[in-house]
Structure formats: C-alpha cells, structure tokens
Amino acid sequence: MKIAMMARNPDLYSHRRLKEAAEERGHELDIINTLRCYMNIASRRPEIFYNGEKLIGYDAVIPRIGASVTFYGLAVLRQFEMMGVYPLNESVAIGRSRDKLRSMQLLARDGIGLPVTTFAHDPKMTEEVLKTAGGAPVVIKLLEGTQGIGVVLADTERSAKSVIEAFRGANVNILVQEFIKESGGTDIRALVVGGKVIAAMKRTGAEGEFRSNLHRGGSAQAIKISPEERSTAVRAAKSMGLNVCGVDMLRANHGPVVMEVNSSPGLEGVEKATGIDVAGKIIEFIMKHAEAGKTKTRGKG
C-alpha cells in the first residue's frame, strides 16, 4: 500500500512513528509538506502537484494538518478525496472539529456531556453571558486557539468582564465556559481509532497551571477509564465523523464532560504513558478500511 502523510515537519515524534509503523507492515509512506502542494482545480481529473511532480498512485492519505494551516490543508485534502484517495479523517470531519463553536453545537445536539458553554457577539451582553455560565470563575477561550493557547481562567466577575470586553472589543470570537473545579487541573485524553478507545491517559497540569496540555509542561500517566467515559469518547468521535481522534474530557461531579475533540492528536504522550503502539493501530485501521473512492463526502460540503 502507498500512503501519503500531509505533514510539515517530518521529524515530529508522531510523524516518525506513523512512518515506522507503516514501513514495519510493508507499506510505503511519503511525508508531503502540505504547503508545498499545488492543485489543478479546473481539470475534470483533479490533480495535486508536489515539488513539480504530479502525485499519483496513493491508496490512502493521513492528514496531519497544523491548526495554523487548516484552510489550505483542508483544500489539499479535499483534492485527494476527489482523486479517490482514502482519507484517514475526512476533510468535512476535520473542519467540524477545528471549529470550536460548531463542534460544541454538534456534541450538544447528540446529547454528549459538556461544560455550560456560552457565546455572544455583543460585548454589552457580558453580564448575561457570565450569568448563563454560572458566574466566576469561568474559562474564556479563543475560538481559534490550540494546545492551551488563548485559554484564560478568570477567577472573579470583575476580571471575567475585563477579559471578555477586551477580546470582544478587539473583535475576537470567544467561548465562555463554566470552570470544572473538581477536575483539579487534570483531564483525560482518550485515543479513539475506528470507534474504539485504544488508549487513555490522565494529564496533570504543571504547578499552578489549570491547563493540562503536555506542551505547557503537564505530565501524563496511563489511566483506566470508566464505561461512561469510554462511551462519551466514542460518541464524541462519531459526532464529529472522525475515524481517529483524541477526545479531551474532564471528570465533573455529574459525569464526564468533553472539552475538545482533536483530529490530529499527538502520539508521544499517550504512547510513552501507556506503552501502547498507537501508530501501529492507526496503520492497521487504514490497511483494513482503505478503498479507492470510499470517502463518504467525496470532497463535497
């Protein structure tokens, strides 16, 4: 099998591991810098060119699209889909997960546990927004933020109002969420592959840090999750339409709540914490399911 991986940094742990796992199983995996691709859109035969050569003969594509290049990355992935190449995650599903507001709306529609989340356009609605979220402390998130960047914990009503009004005054879209104090600065990341949780870890924030992202100095350890947490992770992945994702959850008093669904989860933290060959399981999923023209959306939508 010939697999393309859309990724800008071939040296990242996750990308090296996926390449190793594919080659160990007798497949060829080429790492293609997403931003160096260009496309023939108007042709009846969709084409992608890379470093001056036409990309042909690929059976599957693994999109590892950085948040900063989502727009162009999804355009390239749609082109692969229209060429009949099987995508590990479809462009429409990745687009859903990257839009924090849309993803929350879809999860809520499907009855998946969420923290109380509010969204408003008018900065004059600040008091109503805070009241709906249950009052301070609240977590304020930029819609475009990733890896804990653009996430602020406002401890008091006064600081929350200041932050919300500052963001909205700068015409930046934000979500305001209740702060799940009982989670104690820890969260759970469940790795879902093909509708099953294959690995889970508990992430704990650095001293004095409410965000538990490993990029921000957090630590990780393997964890056994409850049937309810497992079900929540699987349903969240299904709600987004993702075959592979990391589902980030907090343990609230009323059960698990989903914070985010990540369509390009890092593998280093979870593999080292659990000892599970996540990269191998992803490649095996592709081996089992890759079929020309199998994309449900076929680049539409």
From TrEMBL:
- Which part of the chain is the ATP-grasp domain? 104-287
Kindly list the positions annotated as binding ATP.
141, 178-179, 187, 211-213
Question: What Enzyme Commission number(s) apply to this enzyme?
Answer: 6.3.2.-
GO biological process, alphabetically ordered: SOS response; translation
Q: Name one Pfam family in it.
A: Rimk_N
What's an example of a GO molecular-function annotation for this chain?
metal ion binding
Obligatory cofactor(s): Mg(2+); Mn(2+)
The residues that hold Mn(2+) 2 are: 260, 262
Q: Which UniProt keywords apply?
A: ATP-binding, Ligase, Magnesium, Manganese, Metal-binding, Nucleotide-binding, Protein biosynthesis, Ribonucleoprotein, Ribosomal protein
InterPro entries the UniProt entry points to: ATP-grasp, ATP-grasp_RimK-type, ATP_grasp_subdomain_1, RimK, Rimk_N, Rp_bS6_RimK/Lys_biosynth_LsyX
**Co-factor binding details:** Binds 2 magnesium or manganese ions per subunit.
Q: Which positions in this protein are listed as binding Mg(2+) 2?
A: 260, 262
What cellular-component terms does GO give this entry? cytoplasm; ribosome
Q: Which PROSITE patterns match?
A: ATP_GRASP (PS50975)
Binding of Mn(2+) 1 occurs at 248, 260
Q: Which positions in this protein are listed as binding Mg(2+) 1?
A: 248, 260
Note the PANTHER family from the entry: RIBOSOMAL PROTEIN BS6--L-GLUTAMATE LIGASE, RIBOSOMAL PROTEIN S6 MODIFICATION PROTEIN
Query: Which family is annotated?
Result: Belongs to the RimK family. In the C-terminal section; belongs to the RimK family.
Q: What protein is this chain from?
A: Probable alpha-L-glutamate ligase
Lineage in the entry?
A: Bacteria, Pseudomonadati, Pseudomonadota, Alphaproteobacteria, Hyphomicrobiales
Gene this chain is encoded by? rimK
